[in-house]
Amino acid sequence: MTVARWFQIHRPISPRARLVLGIMSFVLPILVWCVVSYVPSVWHPQMLIIRPGSVDYLEPGMRMDRKAFEGEAADAKSEDRAPPEGIPANPIYLPAPHEVAMAFYTAFTTPPASKDGVWLHESLWHSIQIIFWGFFISSVLGVPLGLLCGTYGIFSRLNEPFIEFFRYLPAPAFGALAVAILGIYDGPKIAIIVIGTFYQQVLIIANTTRKLDLALVEAALTLGTKNSKLLSRVVIPGVLPDLYRDQRILLGWAWTYLIVAELIGTTSGITWFITQQARYQHFANVYAAIIIIGIIGLGTDMALALVGRRLFPWDRSLAKQD
Amino acid sequence: MNQIVIPSAGLPSYRDQTHQVRSRFERLKAREVILTVNGLGKTFRSGKKETVALRDVHLSTHRREFLCVVGPSGCGKSTLIRIIAGLEEQTSGEVLLEGKPVTGPGRDRGMVFQSYTLFPWLTVKKNVMFGLEVNNHSTFAAEQQAQQWLALIGLEKFADAYPHQLSGGMKQRVAIARALANQPRILLMDEPFGALDAQTRCRMQAHLLEVWRKIDITIIFITHDLDEAIYLADRILVLRAHPGELQELIEVPVPRPRDLSQFISREFLATKARLEELIYSPHAGDAEDDLYPMVARMTDVNDNVE
Questions:
Q1: Is A15 domain-assigned?
Q2: ipTM value for the complex
């Protein structure tokens, strides 16, 4: 295969190549991480002290700047003292892949440090519930309103200008207000996710609805379809596959509001876990927790895509994607 | 424009009708009038510019008549049929269906569009059932009737297929069945075979005539294909463009039943010659004619392809 063929616009890619490329998209960043972590000549700006030698302020396990270390070593040598020994290391905030992998395992098997603490899976479950309720409440209001705005000009003109304005207001800005109104527990967190999702949701779903082929509506009209039946039997089924796709994207957005939402009031859920671990400089655990969020998000989306294919066997754009 | 000019010398007048054809028309006109269009006008307004799409159009069709509407592009034939369907509102005049004025779309006027408008989320059978269900027939009754209509168009085997699994011709057959299942008084067809390939179109025309012969339906059929119009129609309404106005109502002298061999019959050719005269004459006003320039030669003079 020549290189030129890879650069043909919209050239279809074979399922095998697709799989290989998909795996590569994960392997490549991990590979970069491995190189930075395991090849001492790449980056490694610090030294991990093995033996302090004659330098009295050093301790084994301490990290120090490479330049300072080399200075101390040279001083000791010139004064004929025992030089400190150490190995090149990365800063503590960049653990190596294997450390994160270990943390992944131990995070689920280690009991919480304090008695009133929670397990990682309990934190995660709490976060998932926050997301669920936030997205659910947003959808219950946003989907019908989006459909109405996309179908009837009167709803569109009455709602969309204000929503366009409101969606620029950053959801976390309402944090203090949400706490004042809803208390310090789950209420304000769910509210932030609703605020972050709802306004985008209405606009996106209204736009999707507007893209419905008008000829289908006209065909239904000439078949004697009237008013509400036009909405329930033509508009809604007609946009359903696209609406479902929109909801998948919006659910992803809801997740991105999770961390700020959970910082509001009493910190809870996965955010509580992450901030605790970061406080004790267990950065491997922090990375593990962040990666888990990604895995849950991607996993949910893939599962929903699969369900979508079952739900909408007629949908051609879905067939083209896969 | 380089038209195929049919030598009209030696052809009979398109007005000459055999005894058989004349008595058919007499019987046709004796049947009750289904649709009347009186002084219909339509003006489109965009900004300050006004475009007259239709002006003072009159027509009436009798029960079980097959009426074709032809005309150059911009003559408003689609606008006419869309007003009859109730999808657009006229600026002046009125449309009467069995004496009652038309206000908005309704099940008494079925329509088949050029673009495929089957509901992609419904199976073929469900598409045919659609009109019956929204008009409060029980699912059971709708299903029974849909089966019959599918049998009529010969697509029972595809009852559970989705539209995207059908060919263009099949889609239009289902669209016809879907419209007919509602048992409308009149079937409006807006260039329904325009997107089909020549062979499929030919079969669809024969199929449509067969359907029309067997059931009580009046058809108004829009086309820009003159052969199609002559082959299908009892009468052909010729419109003029800019503004869209009535030019002539032609009674097709070709006897029924129609078949492909009639395409070279004298009556057929005479009618076609008349249609071409009307549509391609300079007065017909197809403004696009002067938009095609002579192309400058960019090859060697001796390197000739003709």
A1: no
A2: 0.89
